[in-house]
Amino acid sequence: MGLRLGFDIDGVLADFQTALGSACQDLIGIEAGLVSARDLPTVELKRAWRRIIRTPNWWTTLSAYEPDQIARLYDLTRRNRWEVFFLTKRPPTVGDTVQVQTQWWIESQGFYLPSVATVPSSRGEIAQALRLDLVVDDQFVECVDCIGSSAAKALLMLRDTADQATHDQATSQGIGIVSTLAEALDVIEQLDTLVGSKSGALARLKNWFSFATEDNPVLPMNPRETRPLPTPRS
Ligand SMILES: [Mg+2]
Prior knowledge:
Largest sheet: 6 strands, parallel
CATH topology of the largest domain: Rossmann fold
Bound molecules: magnesium ion
Strand order of the largest sheet: 3-2-1-4-5-6
Number of helices: 10
Radius of gyration: 19 Å
Strand content: 5-15%
Number of domains: 2
Low-confidence stretches: none
Oligomer: single chain
CATH superfamily of the largest domain: HAD superfamily/HAD-like
CATH architecture of the largest domain: 3-Layer(aba) Sandwich
Helix content: 40-55%
């Protein structure tokens, strides 16, 4: 059985901090991108959130940190038979549901048919319920929750490589550290080789070359290219 993986979205795939900073640039009178949301005063932050909630489909407007790596994740997922769940606690905005907005955004980055769970409760609970093997999250507390409440391992996405305190805290708890999605995928590929059904690097290489065969027919990599979908009734 392939690995079962959970990916947090904001801070891992999507650059939420820059988008939030940009969303309230005129509230604090500075240029977009010059402030992190972490530095915003509480009053401005609340006003920014009110604005975001009123902006139709705001969650589709975020930038990806590493767009090519989301497509790489899809490719690895298909080839290695991983089961991937995207996890988020995003609040709703005007427009489509958080789930549809998030699915739309992930698919636009090259990961087709994403499973998105919009779960406001504990990450550990959902990691346990979904029997995840590994969760990637940019919040230390969520990583601690996952390893404490489930059998999942956790990888902390620490994009601020100067944050030695968090680095040390996570390491002491047995939480892995990565600073990019590319690095996280490298680690997961190594994990897959170690614990997956494949018996080693050679078998793994063989799998890459025999991904689709007569005995192992697989669906097209891009399901949208196969045929037009029926139009839903209005
Ligand atoms: Mg996050």
